[in-house]
Amino acid sequence: METIKIKYFSDEIEKLRYIENKSDWIDLRCAKDMTVKKGEFVLIPLGVAMELPKGYEALVVPRSSTFKNFGFLQVNSMGVIDETYCGDDDQWFLPVFATRDTQVKVNDRICQFRIVKHQPTIEFKETNELTGQNRGGFGTTGVN
Ligand SMILES: O=c1ccn([C@H]2C[C@H](O)[C@@H](COP(=O)(O)OP(=O)(O)OP(=O)(O)O)O2)c(=O)[nH]1
Predict the structure, then answer these.
(1) What are the dUTPase-like domain coordinates in residue numbering (predicted)?
(2) Would the CB of 85 count as within 6 Å of ligand 1?
């Protein structure tokens, strides 16, 4: 069990909950009503800032239903919340592109996150030749 210190920027959103036995990804909510025009890029405030456990970062992705419900595409594909993003004003945001005129309401569940451990320290060692077997190049295994 890990503990996350969390600050809410809105009284109108429900508190985050870890739900057991379903999916361990945790839903995040939109912190204000927003009307967005087709073709616009906006940062959706998620109404929370957190101090992640030491040695962890958080990954933010859309819910499966986000595109169907709102027509939003997450422009960075996956948000990475660094452990150092832990200040009092460090609210989490979801950067999105609206593919149609749309509305999102305060407290709507818009995306989800989980925490993951940092990768180990990595040293790059340059070589002129790799000894592994070639796979045939990018995208060569076909569709079946
Ligand atoms: O979808 C996202 C991605 C990032 N962040 C916050 C947390 C993260 O720690 C910080 C910086 O993100 P990142 O390092 O990916 O962005 P950058 O473009 O490299 O900006 P910076 O110069 O602030 O590092 O912004 C979000 O709130 N939502």
Answers:
(1) 27-142
(2) yes
